[in-house]
Amino acid sequence: MNSTTSTRFLSKDKFQWLIVLCCLVLFIGFVCSRALASIGMISLLVAALLFTDTIQTLKSYFLRKELWVISLFFWLVFISGIYSEDKASWLNWVRIKIPYIALPLAFAGLKRLEEKQFVSILYGFILIFLISTFLILGNYFLHYSQITDAMTSGSGIPMPYSHIRYTLMLAFSFFCCWHLFEKKQFLFHKGERWAQLLYLVFGFAAIHILSVRSSLLALYLGIFSLLLRFIFVRKKFLLGGVLLLATLCMPYLALQFIPSLQNKWQYMDYDRHAFAEGRINNLSDGIRLISMQGGIDVAKKNWLIGVGAGDLKDEMEVFYNRDFRQLKQADHKLPHNQLIWVLATTGIIGLSLFLFAFFFPFFSAGLYENSLAVVLYLVIFSSFFTEATLEEQMGTGLYLIFLLLFINQSQKA
After folding, report:
1. What are 306-333's pLDDT values in tens digits?
2. What's the structural domain count of the chain?
3. What does the buried/exposed string (b/e) look like for 9-47 if buried means 16 or more CB atoms within 10 Å of the residue's CB?
4. Can you say whether the dihedral through the CA atoms of 65, 71, 73, 79 is positive or negative?
5. What is the residue range of 205's domain?
């Protein structure tokens, strides 16, 4: 059966531009408004329900395994409510997971986006992060001395919401632009190629200046994957080898010439020595390591099914009050590791299903053939080791919207 459905009331072209608009609202929400991000997600579902054949959309959803498997992210948390004592906290985590059902359902009724609409979405994402990053860097240079001094004590350059998630999105916008540049995809004129090249330079420099290690790791992992594909798929051995060698040299050169990166490195070294000496208050990396230790401690209470999403915070408090009484309340963090978080809340069974749901669409929809989809997986999965990326609206939004767009593009027209 054909997995696409026809639209009602709107022509196919107008409906697809409506989807583009909904995505742009979501992207703007990423940088300035959580409410706007929610509106963007909700509008995608509403558009699908209003302008597609609802029955056909539901059939398509259940026939396409790569879509309904994503709902496991929701059901794992939902079912853990059976053995979570704190129902209020559990309901909060359930609310955060609703997009894993709503957005795949919305995309089930969407025919393959035309190239112009897909390119418009990528351009919109890039433009929003160009503007927001320009403003962030402008504020940084206007208050250079104050922010630089703050960075020596572990603070970062002010950014919207979570600095880790913001810079992961910025890194992915860099690769969206790389994709357009490599595929020679434009909205209006081939002269856009120069603008794309300028953004690649700007984005690469900005990620280093902002100096968030998760995004730097994601940046270089993505670049290495694209260069390896360039070398072995396109058989560009000499040029690819030169570019790969140059990329290997870039972190060292950046560390020599970018003050914010130097400050980050110096503080990281201080953090490491302080943690080794048992001084843990007001640290950054040390607190993250302790939170991961706490997550594993909580997981030990029920390796099979975990303690339930609702009880994670309470169980972490038990850990902190027992083993780290000297730690300030503000530093009582939930696990800064997505895999440990899932293990603690839903056990080995939950972690196994989580990883299955995460990787299944990658293989089922053939996303491994899409270099930009490969980069998305590298960006998101690499962040799992230092952040619970998918336990928050922005991380969920980044992962889900682009995963579903790539699944959409994997369909036959």
Report:
1. 999 999 999 999 999 999 999 999 899 9
2. 1
3. eeeeeebbbbbbbbbbbbbbbbbeeeebbbbbbbbbbeb
4. negative
5. 12-270+335-410
Q: pTM value?
A: 0.94
SS (H, E, C) the chain: CCCCCCECCCCHHHHHHHHHHHHHHHHHHHHHCHHHHHHHHHHHHHHHHHHECHHHHHHHHHHCHHHHHHHHHHHHHHHHHHHCCCHHHHHHHHHHHCHHHHHHHHHHCCCCCCHHHHHHHHHHHHHHHHHHHHHHHHHHHHCHHHHHHHHCCCCCCCCCCCHHHHHHHHHHHHHHHHHHHHHCCCCCCCCHHHHHHHHHHHHHHHHHHHCCHHHHHHHHHHHHHHHHHHHHCCCCHHHHHHHHHHHHHHHHHHHHHCHHHHHHHHHHHHHHHHHHCCCCCCCCHHHHHHHHHHHHHHHCCCCCCCCCHHHHHHHHHHHHHHHCCCCCHHHCCCCCCHHHHHHHHHHHHHHHHHHHHHHHHHHHCCHHHCHHHHHHHHHHHHHCCCCCCCCCHHHHHHHHHHHHHHHHHHCCC
Closest CA to 174 of 140, 198, 194: 198
Q: What is the pLDDT of residue 278?
A: 83
Distance separating alpha carbons of residues 338 and 350, to the nearest angstrom: 12
Tens-place pLDDT, residues 297-310:
999 999 999 999 99
Q: Which residues of 228-266 are buried (b: 16+ CB within 10 A; e: fewer)?
A: ebbbeeeeeeeebeebeeeeeeeeeebeeebebbbbbee
Q: Is residue 379 part of a domain?
A: yes
| Mean model confidence pLDDT for the chain | 93
Q: If you compute the radius of gyration of the chain from its CA atoms, what whole number of angstroms results?
A: 22
Query: Rounded CA gap, 392 and 409, in Å?
Result: 26
Give pLDDT, residue 184: 94
Residue 223 lies in a domain: yes
**Residue 310, in any domain of the structure:** no
Nearest 5°: phi and psi at 52? -130, 165
Find the length of the chain.
413
Domain membership flag for residue 7 = no
| Residues 90-109 pLDDT 10s | 999 999 999 999 999 999 98
| 339 within 8 A of 353, measured Cβ to Cβ | no
